[in-house]
Amino acid sequence: MTQTHTEDYERPDGRAVRLTFAQPDGVTRGGLVVLHEADGVNDGVRLLVAALAEEGWLAVAPHITSPGAEPGCADVLTATDVTLAWLVDRGIGADLLGVVGFDLGGTAALVVATRRSLGAAVSVSPVGISEPVAGDLPALVDVAGTVISPWLGIHGGADDNADEVEIERLRDAASAAKVATNVVSYPGANHRFDADPDAAAEAWQRTLDWFDAHLR
């Protein structure tokens, strides 16, 4: 497994964030910001960062808040902006930048996709589809139609945090966007995609394909 590293990064304007990242062994295809869930940058986030690096992406997770703290839009956007600057400092072109997140991180990834024009964004099992879930993060159905970055939403169909009616509402909302969107549900999967290995593998490949299609 590719090793992850953690460092503190500060911009000349004083904005700073702690980053956990992993670098590809070969050619770098682009840079991905990985937004963490409510538990912070935990082992699952590190595994995702490492797995993306193994696929050729320079993947980096900003430590947005401490575990259990509720992030707000300003926290998410500031941390993402600083992390994007870190990627640019490392030679990643603007058209090769994307964002991905799971759970609360998936919610944050959609919020970023409505405020920042990136190459692509992916949200896996985002929470708060119909009702706001944390801080001043909006309900996803209220903002999905305003995304300005190509956005993919992936859900487990047996997800305790979202039923098929909500997922369909999110799909309808996202269809109003002026960029490419797709909302996919896997009926046999659950929130963490550990109940159906085949669905998990397909969802992972779909995520990679989305970035491959849009970051080029």
Automatic annotation (TrEMBL):
One GO MF term attached to the UniProt entry: hydrolase activity
Taxonomic superkingdom: Bacteria
InterPro entries, alphabetized: AB_hydrolase_fold (IPR029058), Dienelactn_hydro (IPR002925), Dienelactone_hydrolase-like (IPR051049)
Boundaries of every Dienelactone hydrolase domain copy: 21-214
Coiled-coil segments on the chain, per record: none
Family annotation (PANTHER family): ALPHA_BETA-HYDROLASES SUPERFAMILY PROTEIN, CARBOXYMETHYLENEBUTENOLIDASE-RELATED
Stated name of the protein: Carboxymethylenebutenolidase
Organism for this UniProt entry: Amycolatopsis marina
Organism classification: Bacteria, Bacillati, Actinomycetota, Actinomycetes, Pseudonocardiales
